[in-house]
Amino acid sequence: MYNKYYFDEIYDAIFVQPLYAMCDFWFWFDQKIIDGLVNGAATLTIWWGEIKRWFDEHIVDGAVNGAGITIRGTGGLLRFAQTGRLQNYALVVFAGIVLIWFLG
Q1: Looking at the 3D structure of the chain, how many domains does it have?
Q2: Is 31 strand, coil or helix?
Q3: Which of 71, 99, 100, 101 is the 20 to 30 Å CA partner of 55?
């Protein structure tokens, strides 16, 4: 009766120790496999985000800014042709007619 028929020892050997071993395995699996996959996915996501950021800053923004600079420059050149004075527009029309007459 002192050892209670070794019931606690048998219970520990059949249920508790295998459960501890299974918990140790799943803890290792979580720490090494699952966390490795999650951290790897995070690293790839950060890497892909950096590539997309570089592409956006250098390619997309460069194209948009280049188009804006081109339009601004062209507008700056054409600004001198639009004076708002009817006499200037009539002179351009007359010069065009004379040019066509000489070329035609």
Answers
A1: 1
A2: helix
A3: 71
